[in-house]
Amino acid sequence: MKTGVWLAGMMLTVGLLAMSGSTQADDGRIGVGNERAPPAVKHWRAGRYLFSDEQGGFSIVGVRGKGTFSDPAIITQRVHSVGPSLLTVHTTAGVSGLLRHESFWLTLYLQLETHNQSEAGWVGYRLELQEIPGEASIYGDGLSFNQITRDESSILSDRFHRYSIEHEPGDRLVFTEGTLDNHEQAVFSLFLLDLSPKETFYIEQQPQLPAW
Length: 212
Known about the structure:
The protein is mainly beta. It has 2 domains: 2-34; 44-208, no CATH class. It has helices at residues 2-21, 93-101, and strands at residues 44-46, 49-52, 58-64, 73-79, 85-91, 106-116, 124-130, 143-144, 156-157, 160-166, 171-178, 185-194, 200-208. The strands form 2 sheets. A 7-stranded antiparallel beta sheet has the order 1-2-5-13-7-11-10. Strands 3, 4, 6, 8, 9 and 12 form a 6-stranded mixed beta sheet that branches. The longest helix is centred in the first third of the chain and has 20 residues, at 2-21. The radius of gyration is 24 Å and the shape is globular. The N and C termini lie far apart (81 Å). Residues 1-34 have low confidence and may be disordered.
């Protein structure tokens, strides 16, 4: 009899502990005893760079290549938002060490395989380099769409037939004269020159929408 009472008490205690570990507050928030750690950021490597979609608005589904002229870094991405989204670019650890100790030039040949997963069609696509999120690139930060030689032979798109480059104020590349409906894909090819001492920079992506 005593054994049966003891077992019943143990089962009741375990049940109460299990319930308390998964309870939620009355307003729907997860209780303190069941807080979940945020998901880890995934970094995709291509040559000397690491790419991530940690700022939201789009998702990277694959990266390949080395970022060179003969083997460009190809990022396959799905853009969900019609607003701006930031592609985060980190230099790898070895390159970061060189940047801290001496002048070092980095070049990046990049292709963006971009799936329009938003709710609208696009009539253009704008890319802007930023050293600080939300702030335009300035002349002295070292980032540009090859501002030194102005060689634009690596800039093209399969869906947009015209582009324009603005070096100052800000570094912007805008593709126009084309359309991309939702659930369709466009490829944007570009060349970046990175003389920045910073280990991280951003590429703001902004679909251009029709003016109704």
